[in-house]
Amino acid sequence: MNNENGLCMESKTPMAEVDEADDSMLGKTKISPLRRWINENFLLVLTSVGIVFGFILGFGIREVNPSPELLTWIGMPGELFIRMLKLMIIPLIASSVIAATASLDAKSNGRISLVAFIFITVTNVLACVIAIVLALIMKPGVGVTFVTTETKSTAVVETSDVFADLLRNIMPDNIVDMTFQQTITQNEVTYETLIKNTTNGTVKETVKKLNKTVGKTSGTNLLGIIMTCMLMGIALSKADEKGKPVLDLFESLADIFLTILRWLLWFTPLGILSLIAASVASITQLEEMFRALGMFVGVVTLGIAVHQLILMPLIFFVSTRRNPYRFAVQIGKAWMIGLASTSTAVAIPEMLSACEDDQKVDKRVSRFVIPFCVTLNADGSALFITAAAIFVANITGVNISLGDILIIGILTAICSMALPSIPSSSIVTLVMILTSMNIPADSISLLFAVEWFLDRIRTTSNLVSHTHCVVVTYHFCKNALEKFDISEKKSNQEKQAAIDVVIDDNIHHLN
């Protein structure tokens, strides 16, 4: 009996081990889709939690009227997070653009640049069209009276200056200076009183003079950095073997800085929680503000929703025939960083990750197009500026025709490509457009009351457009890149064959 029990136990033990192994294997394969998604998107989940708790904490602290010192320390983790991200942006952009440009020939670079530029121009125009249609339907500011104080400013902004500065920034005069300063035309109006002696006596005449000076303003000249790095990359590609060590250096630097940035992104949940809490807690008269500007906020918010949920997915699907909303989930982490930081530049690492890892975009395309878009592409800003210009015209009682509205849209679509990637830069362009259309710009001070919210949501639209531009550009340039790779491989094989022939000849002569 004991022997039988013993034999039985000995025979069952191996089977039990197999069953346990099978159970463990089944357990691994039976992970629920939700749990698998959470495991793969753990940082995205934490970031979402950070956003929710940021709003909760912010509204809670706001009720106790926090002091400026308390707000400073609440926002300190977020400020340090953004500072560290910005620290890595310029090295990453410079090394990525040089490496990407040097890896392609001039024809491929030109094709990628052309497709990306067409996408940027078309989507900027479509964003303005969305704003115009919604503004004509919802009529923000009509029937609303605001009391504003008229102010006179001696500083003016002209449309020609914007384009002149754009060209100057494309070709910077100092390779170090462009990393922290941009060229800007500064205009100042002065009035001189002239005394003239006439037959009717002495007459005083006031003459208006405009003094133009080309100066500098703080802010990274990303456009100049990209163009300079493109030239260096093209030169490296022409240098052949002599440029290979330098190309290897920049490719290594790009990977190193991207690795550091991905380490820093694990602090995203805490940084976003801090930034949103400090921003919300500092708001005063929230209810009155949205009540007065509610229709304008509604126009911009609805326009942003149409842009992100309808326009961009439609362009993505028509171009690639792939599911656009799956891609929307893949850029979720980048979207949240843009929402919190109000700058698409600091979300570059996550945009690269979504395009390269999830959409399998060639690094040579993504690492050139994303910095290019960060510099020129601003769909959300174009939408906001167009709606804001119509809103200001309505509240100031200026009658603008359909032709005037179309001119506002055209000016905005073009000028938005000159916006720097810094918070609230759209306000500067708005002043210029209002001035060029003879619309009083004094009422734009009202917009600062909702700038904390609108700046965030328009930044997310800019970011969505950047990532979609990368995928669409790669789709239209993929075949050209494959042909280039084949020809490059064939050329390398021919070079190696020629070298082998020379070596064989030398060996033959030595023998």
UniProtKB/TrEMBL annotation:
Alphabetic keyword roster: Glycoprotein, Membrane, Symport, Transmembrane, Transmembrane helix, Transport
What's an example of a GO molecular-function annotation for this chain? L-glutamate transmembrane transporter activity
Q: Identify its membrane topology class.
A: Multi-pass membrane protein
- Per the record, the major location class is membrane
For this protein, the record's PROSITE patterns field holds:
NA_DICARBOXYL_SYMP_1
GO cellular component terms, alphabetically, are: plasma membrane
Q: Superkingdom of the source?
A: Eukaryota
Transmembrane regions = 42-61, 81-102, 114-138, 222-239, 260-283, 295-319, 368-393, 405-422
Instruction: Spell out the subcellular localization from the entry.
Output: Membrane
Q: Name one Pfam family in it.
A: SDF
- Family recorded in the similarity comment: Belongs to the dicarboxylate/amino acid:cation symporter (DAACS) (TC 2.A.23) family.
> What protein is this chain from?
Amino acid transporter
Q: From which source organism is this entry?
A: Mizuhopecten yessoensis
